[in-house]
Amino acid sequence: xxxxxxxxxxxxxxxxxxxxxxxxxxxxxxxxxxxxxxxxxxxxxxxxxxxxxxxxxxxxxxxxxxxxxxxxxxxxxxxxxxxxxxxxxxxxxxxxxxxxxxxxxxxxxxxxxxxxxxxxxxxxxxxxxxxxxxxxxxxxxxxxxxxxxxxxxxxxxxxxxxxxxxxxxxxxxxxxxxxxxxxxxxxxxxxxxxxxxxxxxxxxxxxxxxxxxxxxxxxxxxxxxxxxxxxxxxxxxxxxxxxxxxxxxxxxxxxxxxxxxxxxxxxxxxxxxxxxxxxxxxxxxxxxxxxxxxxxxxxxxxxxxxxxxxxxxxxxxxxxxxxxxxxxxxxxxxxxxxxxxxxxxxxxxxxxxxxxxxxxxxxxxxxxxxxxxxxxxxxxxxxxxxxxxxxxxxxxxxxxxxxxxxxxxxxxxxxxxxxxxxxxxxxxxxxxxxxxxxxxxxxxxxxxxxxxxxxxxxxxxxxxxxxxxxxxxxxxxxxxxxxxxxxxxxxxxxxxxxxxxxxxxxxxxxxxxxxxxxxxxxxxxxxxxxxxxxxxxxxxxxxxxxxxxxxxxxxxxxxxxxxxxxxxxxxxxxxxxxxxxxxxxxxxxxxxxxxxxxxxxxxxxxxxxxxxxxxxxxxxxxxxxxxxxxxxxxxxxxxxxxxxxxxxxxxxxxxxxx
Length: 658
Prior knowledge:
alpha+beta; six-stranded mixed β-sheet; five-stranded mixed β-sheet; 23 strands; disordered C terminus
């Protein structure tokens, strides 16, 4: 036994030394492990979870979320007013908000930063979130056309001076057309093009954070060839990065580690529970688990090992207390190609909603989630995670489609497809149902899910399937061209409103990779956009969700995402279990092990800093997974297919900050 343990102990020691041995700074208040390094610390260009986790530590928005309840609470804006028609928001900034160099945070800083997000030059992934502001979409389109015209000019005319004139013209156009005004340094007025009940929620999203204008501009120029603003990114690296949040970045060694220390100018210093934080990047999931178990870190942010199911089983038996599955504000699904024809002009059977419903109702999601994934997820029969948005479907009336193979076969027969004597599915002329190609990106667990689905459909419907595995870029290209029959997908919500999910089905939306189009659905979203009564608005959105999840089925939802954390709840406090899964690093703190509560199921303590409501045990108790509701699917008694034998790491969702 000792001989077997020796290599493991040696590896554990090497991991610990690698993490703590090359560290010139003193020990941080706590250390957490990340599966990937931040891609950027420019909030206008962020789209990944690990970037946004740091953004909430080093920047402060006009407002912020209470991470335990997701109520909107004050940030840089100490208060705000909303006009009776819901169109005009006036933010009043606090006079003690300061950048980490001591400069005041001003309304002009936010206006400048929002203009950056709206400039095509910045290549922001979430520019469209600003389109609720009056004139914003028109400005973005105008600037895009301006740059296109410049690029079409003769080379001799594409000079630096010409590009600089374009920029000045764009800044003037922004002032004239985009309804963002700054009457003084502490007042920001924003006029929306239509009521948006979720606008304050957007303002808490990192792309809406302000950046320090002088620092950013010191690293900006214009490109004479393209006319675009050429933004170099040195300003996002220490010691150049000027922050407005609880922390400042004092060191960043790419793909190794990052150290944050208290920002002495932060206006809400009373809420900062830890003086310093260290992030260590370990890409390999097993090494992360080992690093945590050797005591080299206090929190593993993503337990994504292929034996996670075994860890969760041990947790359920009371044999371990350091792994904690948490529901996420997102859904794993497969796209149905809804176009009339497939690549090459072949008829597409999935153009018929009856066929899409049949394939959905003949898939046993309990076996997929419980025997393929084994990651603590709940099955999904809806796109919007149930109970995740206050006021949306409070009675749980949207149930999606049940697991019902006989009803699925009846639907197919109604659509003209029946099983012949040999068990194969054919149309009335005897033409077999085409082989269903399942497009999956390589890696992770997508192909195993596809194999399990294919086995079910062959058994229940008599169709043949083929898994098409492609590298991520090629998979994405095929998805954008709609060169597939079914393709894996996923989405994490960006803001606390059903439209963060439902807009993906809107005709012409950039994320509508299915080609789905239904005028009645679009009309429901349009009505919701115009509705000022919050309850009536939610009823429209509920009807839109019901239409897509019970009738049209442009996607096949399988599970709602979950992430498993690894930490000792008697030693690390302040983490949130809310499905939006935003952690404010300055709310988290470590308890001296000698003084820790020996009860391993003790909930973390919610901080009592400025503006943070009292702790609620419902939102911070790690003694059990978050209750996630019930599913209309009834587990069958039949055994799972042979494809259902393992779990894989939590995915990068195809969509919002994967």
